[in-house]
């Protein structure tokens, strides 16, 4: 005969594993130092300014149709 499995314990174990997986994803996504966040903010700001400066039509340009 097969092994007897307590479904309540199996359900709790599955929830623990899922919770740990989600925590790992969050650590990878949000677990950055202040210096890393500042570097990314500056890089994205520089990129946006570069792209805005190279547009053919400027936003708010009165000659734009």
From TrEMBL:
Biased amino acid composition, Basic and acidic residues: 15-65
Record InterPro entries: DUF4169 (IPR025227)
Lineage: Bacteria, Pseudomonadati, Pseudomonadota, Alphaproteobacteria, Hyphomicrobiales
Originating species: Mesorhizobium captivum
Protein name as catalogued: DUF4169 family protein
Start and end residues of each stretch annotated as Disordered: 1-65
């Amino acid at each position: 005969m097969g092994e007897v499995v307590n479904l309540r314990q199996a359900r709790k174990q599955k929830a623990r594993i899922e919770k740990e997986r989600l925590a790992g994803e969050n650590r990878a996504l949000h677990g950055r130092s202040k210096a890393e966040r500042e570097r990314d903010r500056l890089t994205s700001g520089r990129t946006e300014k570069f792209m805005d400066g190279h547009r053919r039509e400027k936003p708010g340009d009165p000659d734009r149709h």
